[in-house]
Amino acid sequence: MPLDVRWPMPPAGRPSAIWNVASHVVMPTVGSLSKMFAELCSYFRYHNVDRILAAVEKRPSDVPLITASNHHSCLDDPIIWSMLPMRILLRNEKMRWSLAAHDICYTRELHSNFFALGQCIPVVRGDGVYQRGMNYCVELLNLGKWVHIYPEGRVNTNPKEFLRLKWGVGRLISDSRDCPIVIPFWHIGMDKLLPNIEPYRPHVGQVVTLNVGLPIDFSQMKLEMEAAKADDLTKRKAFTDVIQTHFATLREETEALHELHLRNRRKAK
User: Fold this and answer.
1) Mean pLDDT, to the nearest integer, of 41-45?
2) Which one of 4, 123, 190, 267 is separated from 223 by 20 to 30 angstroms, measured CA to CA?
């Protein structure tokens, strides 16, 4: 299924000067406004953000980073990145590249260019793990970049449901030249901040809890699967299953933390 617009992304690692300047306007502006909204209009509670900060700021320049999270609202990106300090939000080279749905963000040329400048990569649901957007992510990872993915593959409009993850995240891990640092995290409350029903308007005063998990080291697993000459499908499934297990643990932890924050918020009123 082709995009309805022209492919909007620059060559990986080689954007034009004009694209680079425009992106350095869009990214810090959106990041700053998102952080302002999260801090002034909502009650965000972040846990273990230092785990992401350490990976973003201290990993060697050639080591790729993958973050993966649940997806409960169309506002998840960019608001979840309000957890990052301004010293990162203002520096494009430190920020994530994120996959975005083609049928939401890439329906018109203007929208397409805006999201591309925001380092969002179009992905077409149903086109599989070898589509152009996924290939682009692998290219970025091979340059040591940070890629964020929502492995549920869609906005989960029923947060009580625990979706089976798509294998795209497994492909990113499998096909990265150097084993990436992989950090999962879970958030609760974004569907209250922007409900998935019309009218689609943000609500202020909502409690949102975001909990970052421990980095997952896939290096030994990759070596073992390569030694066993595992096929691509087997590798993708195995890596994705590990993340699914981490998601299950993170979900339980975050639900408990969120209930605590809700009780504290009710007491404070």
Assistant:
1) 96
2) 123
Residue 12 and residue 39: Cα distance in Å, rounded? 33
Domain boundaries, the chain: 17-188+203-268
Reading the block at residue 18, the tokens are: 């004009």
Predicted TM-score (pTM) of this structure: 0.96
Instruction: Please state which of the four CATH numbers 3.30.70.330, 1.25.40.20, 3.40.1130.10, 1.10.730.10 is assigned to the domain occupying 17-188+203-268.
Output: 3.40.1130.10
3-state helix, strand, coil in the chain (%, to 5): 50, 15, 40
Q: Which residues, other chains included, contact 30 with Cβ-Cβ below 8 Å and sequence gap of 6+? A: 78, 118
With 70 as the cut, is the pLDDT of residue 187 above it? yes
Beta bridge partners of 208: 44
**pLDDT attached to residue 1:** 61
Rounded to an integer, the average pLDDT of 82-111 is 96
Q: Which tokens hold the place of 243?
A: 């993340």
Contacts 24+ apart (CB under 8 A), 7-14: 7/122, 7/132, 8/106, 8/112, 8/113, 8/115, 8/116, 8/122, 9/116, 9/121, 9/122, 9/136, 10/116, 12/136, 12/139, 12/140, 12/143, 13/139, 13/140, 13/143, 13/145
Q: What is the pLDDT of residue 101?
A: 94
β-pairing, 65-69 vs 181-188, is parallel
pLDDT band at 199 (very low <50, low <70, confident <90, very high): confident
